Amino acid sequence: MRKQLFMTVDILLALLIFPIVSSYAADRQKVVDDLKSAFTGETTASSKYAAYAKKADADGLHKVALLFQAASKAESIHAGNHKAALEQLGEKAPDVTPKFEVKSTKENLQDAIKGETYESETMYPDFIKDGSSANVTIALISFNYAYKTELRHKALYESALNSLQSGKVESMASKYQVCTTCGNTYENDGPARCGICMTSKDRYVTVE
């Protein structure tokens, strides 16, 4: 009788625990998928912005080129963070072949604004929710670094487009500094500590 009782209790516990374990596994897999998607997007963005920088230079718009170069560096940092998060979770980053089209510098800025708007208003907020639900800290850190930086990039690209359209490109920054931890991008000189991750200024990369 006691043996049957223990078996019944075990079965009930299994029935209670299994849905929880299954739900956790599904939530964790969603975060892994998000990290892979983010890695693909950031890798592509880094290559794309590097190509856009070359186009801007060819068009005689060196200060716009500097912004694209700085953003390209930032996106590569985001991709590296996402890859590291995947590896810590026992996963492998996907192979990526960037696909994009280089157009006029004005159109390239408009495309960059569109991409940064999607990432900062839709993609990363959704990924952050997934990471929070699954309580995957390493992914949350990586997503938040990218999210906060993309907000900055969006504003920088919008300002650059406005400068281009109003004939005031020469008023743009002549130098950018990029935090090597989170990708945060500053016009001219950044602060002593990064406003996103507190990394010290001596670890910034300068683009000029």
Polypeptide structure, described:
The protein is 69% helix and 5% strand. The chain is globular. A three-stranded antiparallel sheet has the order 2-1-3. The protein starts with a helix and ends with a strand. The longest helix is centred in the first third of the chain and has 57 residues, at 2-58. Strand 1 (176-179) and strand 2 (185-187) form a beta hairpin. It has a single domain, classed as Ferritin (Up-down Bundle), CATH 1.20.1260. 38% of the residues are buried. By secondary structure, it is mostly helical.
Task: Name some characteristics of this structure.
single chain, 208 residues, mainly alpha, Ferritin, 3-stranded antiparallel sheet, 4 helices, 3 strands, 5% strand, globular
Q: Any idea of the CATH class?
A: Mainly Alpha
Over the alpha carbons, how many angstroms does the gyration radius reach?
A: 22 Å
Alpha-beta classification: mainly alpha
For CATH, the homologous superfamily is named as Ferritin, core subunit, four-helix bundle
Average pLDDT across residues? Answer: 92
Number of strands: 3
What gross morphology would you assign? Answer: globular
Q: Report the biggest beta sheet as strand number plus sense, adding barrel if it closes.
A: 3 strands, antiparallel
Number of domains: 1
Spatial gap, N to C terminus: 80 Å
Order of helices and strands: HHHHEEE
Low-confidence segments, ≥5 residues, pLDDT <50? 12-22
Provide a brief overview of the structure.
The chain contains four helices and three strands. The chain is mainly alpha-helical.
Secondary-structure map:
Elements: H1 2-58, H2 62-88, H3 105-134, H4 137-165, E1 176-179, E2 185-187, E3 204-207
Helix pairs in contact: 1-2, 1-3, 2-4, 3-4
